[in-house]
Structures are given as C-alpha cells and as structure tokens.
Amino acid sequence: MEQCPFENELILVSNRGPISYKRDRNGELITVRGGGGLVTALLGVAASCEITWIASAMTAEDTEISIRVGGGRTTVTHDGHQLGLRFVVSDPEVYNKFYNIIANPLIWFIQHYLWDLSVVPDIRRNEFEAWENGYQVVNREFAGAVCDELDARDNESPVVMLHDYHLYTCPSLVRARHPEVFLHQFIHIPWPQSDSWRVLPRHIRQAIVRGLLANDIVAFHTQRYVRNFLVSCEELLRGEVEIDYARAAVFVDGREVWVRAYPISIDCADFERLAESEPVLEEEKRIEEMRREYLVLRVDRMDLSKNIVRGFKAFDLFLDEHPEFKQRITFLALLQPSREDVKEYNTYREKIMRVVEVINTKHGTANWMPIDVRMQDNFMRSVAAYKQFDVLMVNAIYDGMNLIAKEAGLINRHDGVLILSENTGAHEELGDFCLSVNPFDLESQAQAIYEALTMEKDEKSRLAGKIRETVKHNDIQKWIETQFVDIKAKMTEKADA
Fold first, then answer.
1. Pairing of the two strands 73-78 and 81-88
2. Structure pTM?
3. Which residues pair with 259 in a beta bridge?
4. Helix crossing, 223-236 with 202-212: angle to 10°?
C-alpha cells in the first residue's frame, strides 16, 4: 500500500472496534481482535497511517480500560503496529435503545427492504423515546469523543472517517463544534430508494440525511446506492439542497459534499495463505468426507436479508424437477446465529429449520439428507467449504456487498459456479461472471442450480477464472487507496476554496 497521504492522524469511528478486552483463565486482561469484515479491512490502514480508533465499549473489561485511562485514549499493538484506541462507554439501557430498537432492527430493516409495511413497523412512543434517548444520545457520546480528540490536537487537522448506519447523526454534531474538520463516512449496507425512508417520521429521516450531509465525502459500495442517496437528498430535503447528478455532489449550507462508490473487497494474498493453512486443510478433509458427487454451498449469518428460506425452497423445486440428482447432491448450509436478542431473528431461525425439516422429510432417505445445516461460527470450516463447492448460492434479498462471493470465488478449486442475487453490491462487479437471479423468483433459482451443475467444463472454468481475476484486481488495497486519493483531492479543493 502507498504511504498515507495525510500529514496528520486518521481518526476511525465505528460502533465495533478493532480490539476488545476480556480476562483469561488467570484473570489477566488480554486483547481479542474485533470481529467483522470492517475491522479486517481497516486494520490494513494501520500499516501506513497514524490511527486513533473510537468505538463502543463492548465488554465490562473495555469499560474498565476506559475508566482506567479517564475516558481517554490508550495505545494498543496489532500485528506489530501501534494504534490509539478510545472507548465510548454508554449506559446499558441507552445502548439497548440505540442498538436494539433504532439501529437494529428499525434502520437496518428499512435499508434492506425487510419491513412488511402492511403490518409493521408501528412507530410509537417507544420508538420516539428510543430515538431521542438512545440513538441520539450514543451519537452525541461518539461526537463528544471525536471532538475531544480534535481539541487535543490544537491546530492539527486529522481526517475523521466514520463508518456505517449506527452513526448517522454524529457528523453534524462534530461539524457544529469543528467547522473545518474533514469528515468522511462509509455506509456498508444498501442505501434504499427514497420512499423507503418515509417509514420514519419526517424529523427522524431528515436528521439522518442532514447528518450524513455534514460529511465532506459520503461513500457507498455501488453506483446504485450513490444514485439512491442523491435522490433521497433531493426528495427528503426538497428546497434545502442542490444536486449535481453528473458530478455526484450535493450542495448544502455553502459546502459541496461528494458522494462516491468504493466497492470493498478482501486481502487476496492473506486469504490465499489462510486457505492453505493447517486448520483449513483439516476442515477440508471433513468436507470431502461429507460431500457426495455435487456440493451446493451457502455460508451466511442467519439474517433475514440473506434470504435463506427462499434458497432452500428453490432447492426443493430443483429436486422436484430433476430427481436424477437425488442421492448425488448435498446442500451444505453453514449458518452463523445472528442478533439473537432481536425477536424477528429468532422467529426466522425457527422458520429456517422448519423448512429444512420439511424438505429433508420429503426428499431424504435413510442414508441421505439433501440439506445439511450446521449452525456454528467456524470460519475455518467455511473457508474449507469455499474450496470445495460446485455451486455457491448467494441469493440475498439486498446486501451492501457480500464478501462471501469474493472470498469463495478466489480460492475455489472446483471451478464452482456462483449463483448471485442481482440485489447484492457484489453484482456490479461479478454479475457478468455468474448466474444472476432475482431473489424472489424461486423458479429462476431452481433453474440456476440445474444450469450450474450441467454447465460445460470450459464455461465453468472461464467464469471462475474471471471472478478470480476481478477479485484480485479490485482487492482491499485498491478499496483503501481510492478513498485516500479522493480524500486528498477533496482536502486540496477545500484548502483552495
């Protein structure tokens, strides 16, 4: 990666941080790397930039560390690189309102088109109270932490990079105290069409959009989300802003806000090394033992947006229409439980297992079950399965990107065919090299499974090769560097204004 283009520090801000603390068996404090693709992606920046990372305290030990340093910044080491770490400690009841009522599920469901609007959601006193005394409070706490860091640097000008839907109103609060600060915010989930936001009362949806427009750059994974955001600004803040669609810019309060697309990716070299590591090779032996002639794979969190139930129903249709594949095929689903404290997710988990039971009873025999569901968080097994699949099912209703399509496509050894929902962010890059499906069309998904299994070997090899080539060309370094280039250009424009 090129050297960091900023003279001063980079302040990263996200709900989940790169490091969390816990106690080992001896009661000693130890650090644990934070989970999620965002942490993996951004830790790469630590090699080239001086970084302070602001994040929520997720454990009692995180809170203990924050108290120990007086709520300020501590220094941690990751992969030989030092970075500053500051925890935002929220009251548990406040954080519950922020996360479990507003961020998830309300905003998440809106941005993934998940609400059944004929019956839900009901916006009542509970939601209004959670917005004011949960979401807004935590955003103020984050803004306060950012401003404290900026105040401590006197005349220096760090670049502040905020991340995701948890912090939509934070930028405007920071901008009010530090008008000249450079703010960049990346949204890692889909940005829906403007009418979707009308689920929310006017003052809430406008606060979200105005908060984002306090940034200098608002970033998404795809051009589709960029267009949707520009239209949202025009429709939801009518008369307050001016939109330049050709330049992908919004003019507001005398400022020009750039809206840009940077498709996130993976560290290809690191992931290829992982694929040949001993733990993965051991898991691969187990995958080989459980597979039959053909292996259909899906690897997902048990999130409603992933469309798991429809994927299984499509497989059921496939077996109805092509019984010659019975006994010869296994649909392996590696599913990680998700947001188990949200009612809708527990209901969805039960629905998944009922559908699997029905399909296995219908088609299975004494020595063969068509669907093999493993509910566990076993990343090494997932990587091993990536290498082995003949068909990879990624049929999400909507997805910001979907890195599984990229990870699996990079290391698969069977010239496996990708079935990819047209509503995933990854479709903008990989759509020409997969079997594209509508996530609601079960017939097309069933047909895609058959087409993938019967595709000519040369065509399978060509498509798989194109996916590998595309993923390697658009790797994680390119994702970071293209943002750096635009940030530097925007900083120069601001300085010259």
1. antiparallel
2. 0.95
3. 218
4. 130
Helix axes 403-411, 457-473, angle to 10 degrees: 120
Tell me the β-bridge partners of 298: 333
Residue at 351: amino acid letter: K
Q: At 335, is the secondary structure helix, strand, or coil?
A: strand
pLDDT digit string (tens) for 32-59?
877 666 666 676 666 667 899 999 999 9
pLDDT of residue 37: 60
Element (H, E) at 81: strand 81-88
What single-letter amino acid sits at 63? Answer: T
Question: The tokens of 7 are what?
Answer: 């003279």
pLDDT of residue 145: 98
Phi, then psi, of 220 in degrees rounded to 5: -135, 175
Tell me the DSSP string of 397-408: SSBS--HHHHHH
Three-class SS of residue 420? strand
Contacts of 497 (CB under 8 A, 6+ apart): none
The three-point CA angle 318-319-325 to 5° equals: 110
The tokens of 9 are what? Answer: 């520090």
Dihedral of alpha carbons 26, 71, 101, 398, sign: negative
Residue ranges of domains in the chain, CATH in brackets? 10-264+478-492 (3.40.50.2000), 268-473 (3.40.50.2000)
**What phi and psi, each to the nearest 5 degrees, are found at residue 163?**
-135, 125
| Percentage of residues of the chain with pLDDT beyond 70 | 95
Tokens of 271: 């992931």
CB neighbours of residue 450 within 10 Å: 15
